[in-house]
Amino acid sequence: MSDDDNIIHSEPLFEAKYMGNRAQPDETIDSKESAVKWLNKYYGTIVVDGKWRIINERDDTNIFLMAKKDFIDSLENMRILIVGEDNKPKITPITELWLKGPHRNYDGRIIFDPNIKYNCDDRPNFNLWRDFAIQPGIGDVTRFLDYILKIVVSGKEEHYEWLLDWVAHIFQKPGEKPGTSVVLRGIEGIGKSFFAETIGKLISGRKNNKRNNYYFKTSNPEHVMNSFNDHLANILLLHMEETFWAGDKKGAHHLKDLITGEDLSVGQKHLSTKMANNYMRVIMNGNDDWLVPAGPESRRYAVFDVSDELLQNTEFYGEMSIWLDNNGLEALMHFFMTRNITHDVRKVPITEGLIDQRISSMDSVQAWWFNILVAGRLPYIDNMGTDGVKVVKEVLFDHYCTTMRKTMTRTRSTETEFGRQIRTFAPKIVNGKKIKESGKKSYETLVDTCKVGGKGEQRYAFIIPPLNVCRKCMDFILGSKYDWNDDGDGGWSRITDMSDGVYM
To answer: What's the 3-state SS for 25-93?
Structure first.
């Protein structure tokens, strides 16, 4: 007698008291073969950290790893009538049939790789990638594109085109990490979050019909900084709201690694930390002036100032949401999937917002020097005309220290480091590039040194280039021309509120 002959087809598969249970499958199961086939559709096995686990894919938004006992207990109500060896009918759990019979087995590891199209029969690895939730459809997307142009980038056409390409890159090349992020800055209630949330819906599905968890939104730094971060292992878009303070060095380094790092360390309770491929894009939004740790030459952040034209306009966003739910998302997906990407999304536009972030991210010496350039004043001892001015190193450092005390800045530079940094603020630039010193890693500088004072009273002094030259050097460092209010051709003004006795 074959196993199939042991199936009593005339009896219902599940007892009546279990028929209303959520665990019951939609498919009709009337044999041992169909029971195993149904289980193979949603379950598989894999070894993780030396432990045999069952992969549960029944929830489209999450993948669960289950111990054998949990698997059996969760489907205890799903049984089938089988004639045993003693020719007596026996109600047998379908899990027992599956565990003893043929089942999907992955010999490799769990991965997340958007470069590989999902196939449940692929071996040996189990790929968490299941494609995007929304399928493309033809439709008019003008209203959403107008919102991006007029509100998200405040009418800047060049920024608008770059941002559209950056979003299109997500859907056309999900397995290619751009290494850049989008930062939206503006006051509360102007719709900053709406942009990222809409892209998140394209990735993971509508609010009440999500298909995956490739989009993650948080306003809690612990969700990103915590060691147990397995929820980030398969994220394509991380949306952070007011999450990181740019002055937090630990958070700053972690954020930079999320944006540009190709690997991600993933920690899970009771399991060892693993390294996974990082395909994550990041969108941040907030209303603080300083949102991201952007150094003078930072190229990670595309910072856009969002217009307040739609401040508290719930009617507009309500109508837009209705449009999105009525094939608007499908139309947007088609637009981004078919858009011709012409910009290099690895190179962010130099916006006013990015310049503000670079200035806010300056260390104490950089910030002090920037304010010196804005004021155009130095405690110099000699005006050398077109050659610049002479400033005693000790006096300049004293001015810096006094400023730090007045501003109650705790982090201060040593005199040696201070002197080194002064030289870097006026690099020699040829054809738009800094020139390296011969045989050294450092760059040539326009700042010279000399000795001043009589015998026995000599002190080291800097020869600082003219004000307009120093400002042009700062423009080069910032990546854009700053509004200095004047061209600096009038030269340096002398600070006279310090004792002349310390000059010589």
So the answer is: CCCCCCCHHHHHHHHHHHEEEEEECCEEEEEECCCCCCCEEECHHHHHHHCCCCEEEEECCCCCEEEEE
Mean pLDDT on 373-393: 91
Q: How far apart are CA 495 and CA 504, in angstroms?
A: 15
For residue 189, is pLDDT > 90? no
Residue 48 bridge partners (DSSP): 51
**Does residue 12 carry a pLDDT above 50?**
no
In the beta sheet, which residues pair with residue 210? 205
Q: Domains (ranges, CATH) in the chain?
A: 4-106 (no CATH), 142-356 (3.40.50.300), 362-502 (no CATH)
Backbone angles phi, psi at 290, to 5 degrees: -110, 110
Q: Report whether pLDDT(228) > 90.
A: no
State both tokens at 304: 């856009």
Residue 40 CB contacts under 8 Å (≥ 6 apart), including other chains: 98, 102, 103, 104
Q: What is the pLDDT of residue 244?
A: 61
HSE-CB of 381 using CA atoms within 13 angstroms: 22
pLDDT at res. 337: 96
Integer angstrom CA distances of residue 129 from 61, 202, 228, 236? 11, 15, 21, 10
* Angstrom distances, CA of residue 115 to CA of 112, 163, 177, 275, 493: 9, 23, 11, 18, 60
- How much is the pTM? 0.81
Annotate 349-400 with three-state secondary structure. CCCHHHHHHHHHCCCHHHHHHHHHHHHCEECCCEECHHHCEEEEHHHHHHHH
Angle at 448 between CA 445 and CA 450, to 5 degrees: 160
Indicate whether 10 pLDDT > 60. no
Is-contact 255 298, C-beta < 8 A?
A: no
Tell me how far CA of residue 281 lies from CA of 161, 257, 261, 291, 498, in angstroms. Answer: 18, 11, 11, 17, 51
Please state, in angstroms and rounded to a whole number, the distance separating the CA atoms of residues 103 and 101. Answer: 6
Three-class secondary structure of residue 19 per DSSP: coil
- List all residues 6 or more positions away from 203 whose beta carbon is below 8 Å from its beta carbon: 132, 133, 134, 170, 212, 214, 215, 236, 237
Q: How far does Cα 163 stand from its chain's mean position?
A: 15
Partners of 463 in beta bridges:
390, 448
Tokens representing 209 are: 């019909």
Q: What is the pLDDT of residue 8?
A: 40
Pairing of strands 281-286, 493-494: unpaired
Using DSSP bridges, classify how beta strands 281-286 and 237-241 pair: parallel, antiparallel or unpaired: parallel
Q: What is the mean pLDDT of residues 2-13?
A: 42
Kindly give the interhelix angle for 364-375 and 415-424, rounded to the nearest 10 degrees: 50
Burial class of 215 by CB neighbour count within 10 A (0 to 12, 13 to 18, 19+): buried
pLDDT, averaged across the chain: 83
